[in-house]
Amino acid sequence: MAELVLEAACKRGWIDRGGRATDPMRGMRFGDGAPEYVGFLAEVLGSPEVEALRGDPQLLEAVTAVCGPGMAPIGADVCRITFPGEAHGTPAHQDGWYCKAPGLWIAWIPLVDCSRELGALEVAAPKPELADHDATGLIDVPDRGWRTMNCVPGDVLLFSGLTPHRSLPNRSADRPRLSLDLRFALEAP
Ligand SMILES: O=C(O)CCC(=O)C(=O)O
Known about the structure:
Elements: H1 2-11, H2 35-45, H3 48-54, H4 57-67, E1 71-73, E2 78-82, E3 105-110, E4 121-123, E5 133-134, E6 137-138, E7 147-148, E8 157-160, E9 165-167, E10 177-186
Antiparallel strand pairs: 1-10, 2-10, 3-8, 3-10, 4-7, 4-9, 5-6
The chain binds 2-oxoglutaric acid.
GO molecular function, one term: dioxygenase activity
Pfam family, one: PhyH
InterPro entries: Phytyl_CoA_dOase-like
């Protein structure tokens, strides 16, 4: 999977063949709907590899064990590439604010070794309900209780649509952070 994403980024000139961010991409963060990022997402998320991962029996078993029965992939997925030198990570938010699927859970999957330096994900305790968001995310960002961890390809972090989460900025010298977030929700009865 990482190879597929690296190739998609490499052919767009975002990274070199050694997997390092190219100079123009340092500090870069794509805005929502940036055409070059939309094209990248269409290529990666429409690939047979990502489709196979959505239905991977081991992943579905883990999702069912954690989230309960009746969960299915909903295809509302993102492949993230964050570049070294970006000033901020992903702002704190709850996915349920944006994605109204019932019983929403997210499987966050690192595609490279992902340390705090590279911009690991942080999660806080799930809230009982959705909190107000503005254009950048949660308005009342918890000031304590954030947890993070180093993770590696093969790990999966599962969190619910009510879980506040954010990412740390990528402070590495030249490495992009690559990850997938796949969404699951209750199947219609
Ligand atoms: O990977 C990130 O930086 C953010 C992930 C995220 O917001 C999500 O999975 O909903």
